[in-house]
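Q: Convert this sequence to structure tokens.
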Amino acid sequence: MLKELKYLLHLLTIFIFFFILIKFYLSDNYEKKFYRSLNNYDEVIKKFSKNLPLLENDTQNVIEYVDNNTDKSKKKYNFWKLIEND
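A:
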């Protein structure tokens, strides 16, 4: 008998927890606070983005292209043939 009451108490506690949780997150007050906080984040991002410094582009002529096709004597390998040889 006590074991059944204990299970019932556990289930009742879990049910009440989820009920209160869902009630809170679906309430109008929570939605208002949530959307207000999103608007505040947007304003903060806009404010800080105006004060960002612009950096000069220093990446001109950094990449050097190398022609790898100069040596024609190299053997070309196929992936499937390498697996077959094992």
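DSSP finds three helices and no strands in the chain.
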